[in-house]
Design a protein that fits this description.
By secondary structure, the protein is of the alpha+beta class. The protein folds into 2 domains: 283 residues, no CATH class; 44 residues. It is 66% helix and 6% strand. A 4-stranded mixed beta sheet has the order 3-4-6-5, with helices on both faces.
Length: 329
């Protein structure tokens, strides 16, 4: 067991990333990996820019975490790696920027970048949840695809707009996977700290926190429920359109997804030791992940269609009432 902030943690010996991965994330990645030569092509494209160049850029213009530099971040990273049973802790860099964010970058030897503003807004426990999230990305093999997508967004869309227009459908598909990969890694962050309040609080503060400004998690959870459950057809359309160009799902959605996962019992089963180990063959066929992902999208589409039907019914009633009122006049 590992302890921090009064929470006793279970060491998840040899836990496989399969245990926390979202079905839509796994299905999309498995489909990509089954395209002949796809990974090789990605590595060649990535080689044009170079992991070494990226690492050197951060070494030149960021602070590398060590026992002597941001020692508390180093300690939290070590604890995350202990809980998730990671032998080799990735390097972490602190980069000076006002945007509250973090990321895992690289290919052969990925590293983590924490923006300095995050350390100002989040508590030490919340930063640890973020570290668990980023380690989850690395363990799930997300980093190659995420790094390529970031390079594509920065270089293709903003510098070569004609090529960007041609590649927009591919980018939209990759962004949809990217958002699902965030849901997977939120679960990894929760498993790392094993404190739901800390994990959800980190999302709340990243959404709109300020240094020295107290926030109420219960109220943010209520906001999450309100966002997911309320609204008419137009709101549903706006929800889809608003997220299309985003790399991350909205924080209120992420909090809701985490609560759904916990309420499904999966989180408690993992803490009880019921999870797939890395040395165990993944018996779960990728088509099952695809099926579960498709079911999730079908459910969302069905909810949208139900909202359409309800909106049409309301419109018909209003037209009928208006017509009857006009006849009475």
């Amino acid at each position: 067991m590992s302890e921090s902030s009064g929470v006793q943690r279970r060491i998840l010996t040899q836990i496989s990333p399969v245990a926390w991965e979202h079905p839509a994330d796994r299905a999309a990645l498995n489909a990509l990996r089954k395209v002949p030569g796809f990974d090789l092509a990605l590595r060649k494209i990535f080689g044009l820019f170079g992991e070494r160049a990226l690492r050197l850029a951060f070494k030149a213009n960021a602070v590398r975490v060590s026992p002597n530099q941001y020692g508390w971040v180093h300690e939290r990273l070590e604890r995350v790696c202990e809980v998730l049973d990671v032998d080799h802790a990735p390097e972490v860099y602190i980069s000076q920027t006002p945007i509250v964010n973090a990321g895992a970058v690289g290919m052969g030897d990925p590293f983590i970048v924490l923006n300095s503003s995050m350390l100002e807004i989040l508590s030490h426990d919340e930063v640890e949840a973020v570290l668990g999230h980023e380690v989850g990305h690395i363990l799930s093999g997300h980093v190659l695809y995420r790094t390529l997508l970031i390079l594509m967004l920065n270089l293709v869309l903003f510098r070569y707009t004609i090529i960007g227009l041609a590649m927009r459908p591919i980018l939209m598909a990759l962004l949809e996977w990217y958002r699902k990969s965030e849901l997977s890694s939120d679960r990894a962050g929760l498993l790392a700290v094993q404190d739901p309040e800390v994990t959800m609080s980190s999302l709340m503060h990243m959404a709109g926190g300020m240094r020295g400004q107290p926030l109420d998690l219960d109220e943010f959870i209520a906001q999450s429920d309100e966002y997911r459950e309320s609204g008419d057809l137009l709101d549903s359309v706006y929800k889809v359109l608003n997220v299309l160009g985003q790399t991350h799902p909205f924080a209120v959605i992420r909090v809701g997804e985490l609560r759904d996962w916990m309420e499904s019992g999966a989180y408690d089963r993992i803490l009880a030791g019921e999870y797939q180990r890395r040395d165990e063959k993944d018996e779960r066929p990728w088509r099952q992940d695809l099926s579960e992902a498709a079911t999730g999208y079908k459910d969302a589409a069905r909810e949208l269609l139900d909202e359409v039907d309800a909106t049409v019914d309301r419109l018909k009633n209003k037209i009928g009432e208006a017509f009857r009122g006009a006849r009475r006049e």
